[in-house]
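Internal tracking record. Fields below are filled automatically when a chain is submitted to the structure queue. Please do not edit lines marked as system-generated. If the sequence contains nonstandard residues, flag them in the REMARKS field before resubmitting.
Queue: standard
Priority: normal
Entity type: single polypeptide chain
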Amino acid sequence: MMQRFFCRGAGGSVRIAFACVSIAVLSHTPASAASPGDTGLAFLKIGVGARAAGMGEAYVAVAQDATSQHWNPAGIATARGLEVHASHNEWISDVRYEWLAAVKGLRGHAVGVHMALLSMGELEGRDANGDFTENFRAWDMLLGLTYGRRISESLEIGLTGKLLHERIQGFGASGVSMDFGARYRTPVRGLVLAATATNIGTPMKFEHDEFVLPAGMRAGLAYRTRRILEGLILAADAVMPNDADLRGHLGMELRVHEMVALRGGVKLNHDEEMGTAGLGVHYGPYRFDYAYTPFTESSSLGDVHRVSMTWNR
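SYSTEM-GENERATED OUTPUT FOLLOWS
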């Protein structure tokens, strides 16, 4: 069904392109709807890039850089030349998340590759009685390939294929998943609509335990002002995961100087995350981004810092 959709979408219908993304999720959700404890590979839920983080992860309609491979694969369709991106995420406890990507524009379409590694440091092993056994390590990894195509002046579509692997001590699990995305420039100047279906894949098995991927649908809009506060972007996303309730994301970016951008955002219906803040600095072909995400006062998880570097040629 999805293959037929993209063939028809390439014919030029905006409604078909957005319907395709919706169908991908609706056809997948009944089979994979799950409670939080039933989904695996939770690292797939972690946002990528400090720019997106600083905007409260309201980014599905904003993404047009290498991080689009995570947020919306359609976003790379208008890429020009070569772009390389690297992100480092100091997550809770000793968890670290590294993300590296490259995108190459090819006249109306583009290809991208990315890889991610989540490392959890050294963990203590316990037996059934709670007694210490030995220390061990755990990590998650993915390798991804993205293709984006510009169908018309107003419509882009894209897809991502991912190889997934999780390793805990001497045990492992592997699988594959796909993301689908569309991005539409409306007749209203500066207004963009977008939607994605992410982590669509078959269940995976870790030893004898089977789990589904944290799949979901994200839809959003972004508006870039042209006359008042030129350089201001306002964005909003609605996220429908298969293991949680509907969530919302609101974000903004204001270019206060040709080299400096300030960002802020709010997350709605998140248990321990609320506001975000960020800063971006552009210098020639380089962009440096930083984002800070505090947890609520009742949380014991601490705060999250993200840094990203992007280079364009």
